[in-house]
């Protein structure tokens, strides 16, 4: 799908993401993941700021990136309710260049499904994150259940057309093949949802 079309699709979905900020299961997972964030945080595909309530660490400063102007507007508004310092970049992460080693923590939730080059982006995370930093991911992808994964593969073109994202990405393989080093993996919903903590590997 062309980038402009994808951006418009996400612009139009902003109200849905605002409504889903308090989705109970997702909130539990978000809390578990985001509680680990600290320091200078880069949150990629920030959406409507659904992770903001869970940045509890005193020192957190968040840079939220999104290519959708509507999502950025919504995230800015949401951030004003919280104590941390926040700034926003309206950029396409697939073309984003940032200084190496500039973040303590990089976060991406439910967004790996829509990046054009997810594997390359994981390597960029490896570059942008400080050596002693942490990469926190909560992503959905191909189920470990054979029947579900078969259905996901078949439905992917339709799913992408409707939502803008892919449902057939092998999340673990994407991270494993990147430069990042896995620290912890948890899976939910028949292996559709992955919660991953990784650290950069600078060797
Ligand atoms: C499925 S939503 C998830 C939003 C949020 N992270 C959450 O957990 O609710 C994906 C978000 O990533 C953004 N996005 C997708 N591809 C992007 C890209 N290449 N560059 C920047 N933002 C992107 C979309 O605009 C959208 O806000």
UniProtKB/TrEMBL annotation:
InterPro entries: Methyltransf_11, SAM-dependent_MTases_sf, Thiol_S-MT
Domain of life: Bacteria
Record flagged with keyword Transferase: yes
GO biological process: methylation
Residues of the Methyltransferase type domain: 42-136
Assigned keywords, A-Z: Methyltransferase, Transferase, Ubiquinone
Pfam family, one: Methyltransf_11
Protein biosynthesis listed as a keyword: no
Signal peptide (residue range): none
GO molecular function list: S-adenosylmethionine-dependent methyltransferase activity
Protein name, UniProt field: Ubiquinone/menaquinone biosynthesis C-methylase UbiE
